[in-house]
């Protein structure tokens, strides 16, 4: 899992291929710790997926741009394009089915 900042974020994401999960977290967030572990495991199982983590307390501009009001918050990109927020239960077995169910949907307008 890679930490990202708002500096150059959009340029960087536009150059990526495959799936990216943008994970907003905070150091004091207990749920974020659980999600961090699950997302790291998921990332290790897939060659076509990267998880990027942004600390919402530090990357406030990016968090505001995505209208993050609760943590953790997850957003999905594919082949450099914004797809949608990821709303799924915190179970590793639920992640692949969620991604497959949304894979053929058209990208949404970025926040």
From TrEMBL:
It comes from the Bacteria. Coiled coil: none annotated. It holds the Pfam family Thioredoxin. Residues 7-90 form the Thioredoxin domain. PROSITE patterns: PROKAR_LIPOPROTEIN (PS51257). This is Thioredoxin family protein. The lineage of its organism: Bacteria, Pseudomonadati, Pseudomonadota, Acidithiobacillia, Acidithiobacillales.
